[in-house]
Amino acid sequence: MNLTAGGNAQHDTAQALGFGTSSILFDGTGDYVYAANQAPFDDMDGAGFTNFTVDAIIRSASIGSSQCVMSVGDGGSWANMLFLATVTSAGKLNFQASNGGSSGVNLTGSTTLSADTNYHVAYVKAGNVFTVYLNGTSDGTTTSSITLATSSDQFRVGLEADGSWGFNGWIKEPRFSLCARWDADFTPPTVPYP
User: Fold this and answer.
1) Which of 48, 64, 74, 89 could form a disulfide with 80 if both were Cys (CB 3.0 to 4.6 A apart)?
2) How far is CA 40 from CA 43, 54, 89, 191, 192, in A?
3) How many Cβ atoms from other residues are within 10 Å of residue 132's Cβ?
4) Could you give the CA distance from residue 123 to residue 107 in angstroms, rounded to a whole number?
């Protein structure tokens, strides 16, 4: 999946986030990167698409407002969202997934993140089990048998579709996978993804 920069999103060498020489810098107001190809997201509950993972290494410059890590769709409306992976205004991981109607999954982790700290975050759907992982350790889990919505919105990193909840800080190795990469605690990656 090729990503394109929007707004002022840019590679920045000030924060390598553990390996390599740079990460993507977002200023929290209109910066994002996106994938124009929507094929994987048009039929998330088709054969082979019931499991997925979004993960990245993040470093927030500030805590106190909701910040989008990755999304497909508008987090302000269950009807217009497929999934939304965020850090809440309270500094906790949050994972929302929609059935395209009036309800969906809304899972919030238990750990409060700190500003200017590197974290590996993973948001995983494995069958009916939704889990958020922080540095390879489960930070919250729930079960739901919802049928996921479809979406024609862009896959975005750093900003949801309606332009709100911009990420303020750095994100490295943002990845969407059509599988549940983890179903138990794990050692986070320490080298670039293949």
Assistant:
1) 74
2) 7, 13, 30, 26, 23
3) 23
4) 10
Q: Picking from 32-41, 86-95, 170-179, which range would have the lowest pLDDT averaged per residue?
A: 32-41
Report the C-alpha dihedral over residues 33, 38, 40, 45, rounded to 10 degrees: 120
Q: Please say whether the beta carbons of 16 and 22 come within 8 A.
A: yes
- Name residue, tokens 């350790």: 137
Contact 154, 40 (CB under 8 A): no
pLDDT-above-90 percentage for the chain: 61
Per-residue pLDDT tens for 123-175? 999 999 999 999 999 999 999 988 877 777 788 999 988 888 999 999 999 99
